[in-house]
Amino acid sequence: MSWSSGLIKEILNPNNLIISSELGVVIADKYPKAQHHYLVLPLADIPSIFQLNRSHLPLLEELHLLARNVVEVKGARWTDFQVGFHAEPSMQRLHLHVISTDFVSPTLKTKKHWNSFNTELFVPYEKLFALLEKENCFSRLPKSLRDELLNKPLICNQCEFVGKNLPTLKEHLLQHLQDPERTTSDKMEKQEVDEKAYFRDELKRKLKDKRNFLIETDRAVVIKADFPKSQYHFRVVAKEELRDITQLTEEHLPLLDHMMELANQIIEQQDHLESRDFRIGFKVHTFWNRLNLHVLSDDFYSMAMKRPRHWNSFHTELFMPFQMVHMLLSLQGSIESISEEKYNELRNQRTLTCNQCEFSTDLLLDLKAHLYQHWQRKEGEREQKKKMENIVRLLDEAKLNDDDHSVLKLDDAATGTAQPTPLLKAEPETKGTPTQNFRVQIQHGSGNDNLMYGPPVNMMNQLNPNNPFRNTPPLNINSLNPAPQHRPNYRARNPNQHRMPGQHGPRAPWNGPRFPPNPNWNPQNFPQQGFNMFAPGPSINQQGPPQYPYQPIGAGGYGPTGPPNSVRPKWVQKTQQKNNQNPNNVEQKPNLQNPNQQIPHQQKPPAQHPTQYARSNQQNRPYKNPQNRQNSNQNNNPNPQNPQNPNKQKYKNKKPANPNQGAQASQPTNNAVPKT
Ligand code: AMP
Ligand code: ZN
Q1: Which segments of the protein form a coiled coil according to its record (predicted)?
Q2: 89: CA distance to ligand 1 center in Å?
């Protein structure tokens, strides 16, 4: 065996393995160039980085996971390491270097050693990953560049020091190691400043990189949020050089209106949801260097929701709804920024209260499990609603055969007015009883309303030849709702007339402030059957006697509701529903057996349930525990002669005994809802 196959020989001896998984192993570098120096190798026979292509990306992820795990096993800090490949490796079998950045080691002996880790001769893992993703291969550096890099001066990796020779540099590095206090804080500060400055400009870069635009106009663009905090999360980014809302003046109101228009457009494009499911607003203390309007669905069910501050940035005064910004600008011409103190206080607020009910907790994990429940139920509701709408559409298609326009003209002539009148009114005498306490829908006076809600004809009158419903005896609305004859524009509480299918009704100009949750909504009832996420809770717009005349809902109004409570279908257990009625819909529950399932933003549902969390934690540790090594060596002796399929992602030690177990674990039961 030649010298260059030394690593292959090493990994054949199980005693050399610090940790291992089904796809890779970790050994100590025999000639470490720093305090910690490990090599992660695949079991598959891949000679070097030059044989890699896109198909190896999952394998690389696995190697990277092993790298993290070995650092953890060694009790070291991940941030003290650099992880990557040599652009010009000397040893055979692909190997990922996991090396601490102190570079204090007696076996660091030559300039080549130093420069191979501290110039472009070292290819960080992320860089290689991105390269492969983009170009499908990694090519050799030209020899001239290689020589140039090898001969670069000996620049310290932690400060600006340049060593005259290797011993001087090594002495200097030792000082860094012995006085970590000064140097690491310096280093971190510098790094942090650099990194932040870079990232703060990300939106500016995105504006240049036109590929990301979902919508573009001369003044703004819509892009997907990089770290979506909900299932649907977009940003409307202004093209004008404005840092944040504190730079806005009254003159920017047209720009704001324009941004809201784009927000509505992108919402319109989301078939799945409606405008009332979205939150639209600005972060008061935005990280980004560019004015950007958040448009996000109110599920807040997302992998990227990782810290309480993420939650707080959308659920405290740190988030300013669009209309508030608009109003402040109209009234006082500017918006003040908040003090750093207040910012920190709000950002670090401990109590996290659900945005959809009164559930409160100190633990983000609990909240996430709870949000997952909301999300799951909402999905079920939406499905039900879609079915309802389909039924309604079928019924309405039958009715629409009559000529609405002639009816309109006749009616206008008869009443002597062509003014559109509010069409749906609640009966004053019927208010108060549970089934009649439906939401009053207020119509805009646009011509479309007639198309959406039917002509202003007394359709209760079966004798009226213009009554488009006169020939539909099976659905005799008189029998459903005896209607008063004195209200020519009264619309019965019949779901078929409540909304026209396929239309969303008039959209509120923007998403309003979310009113405080209904105090009568008992969260204890949350997981019970019949729970209806769309059931309107009384809000300041919907409570009390109906108001006349009906005004269009202004800023802050809810969009139109679905059918009233009384006709809503009862909640059907989702599992049944799915099994029985919609076998193709897999996006609603995480399914470990189908890890590639598509859900919005290509996210896999985060591990929300506590037991799942344990699992996901385990997933971060694919290695065999060193304590169990004896055991695992016997059972699982890695056999490089028989390389594993690199696409196989399962680890022996985490495969559930029962194949259904995984799926079950990923499907939280009602017990997962923390009791308040
Ligand atoms: P590279 O230049 O990327 O090919 O690095 C090869 C690495 O393998 C170097 O860091 C060597 O110190 C290390 N090495 C060489 N021989 C052995 C061995 N027998 N066992 C473990 N590590 C080795
Ligand atoms: Zn230094």
Answers
A1: none
A2: 9
Q: Where are the alpha helices (DSSP H) in 338-403?
A: 340-347, 364-399
CB crowding 274-306: b at 16 or more within 10 Å, else e: bbbbbbbbbbbbbebbbbbbbbbbbbbbbbbbe
DSSP 281: E
Delineate the domains of the chain, giving CATH numbers in brackets.
Answer: 3-152+650-672 (3.30.428.10), 185-349+422-458 (3.30.428.10), 482-522+575-603 (no CATH)
- Dump pLDDT digits (tens) for 106-128: 999 999 999 999 999 999 999 99
Query: Of 18, 26, 36, 39, which is best to mutate to test ligand 1, by the most ligand atoms within 8 angstroms of its C-beta?
Result: 39
Give the single-character DSSP code of 92. Answer: S
d(CA 527, CA 571): 11
What are the tens digits of pLDDT across the range 203-259? 777 777 777 899 999 999 999 988 899 999 999 999 998 989 999 999 999 999 999
pLDDT score, position 389: 87
Sequence-ordered strand ranges (E) for 489-578: none
Give me the active site residues, please.
95
Which residues have a Cβ under 8 Å from the Cβ of 347 and sit 6 or more positions away? 285, 309, 312, 313, 316, 318
Q: Which of 240, 228, 322 shows the shortest CA–CA distance to 282?
A: 322
Q: Whose CA is nearest to atom 17 of ligand 1?
A: 30
- From the CA of 17, which ligand is nearest? 1
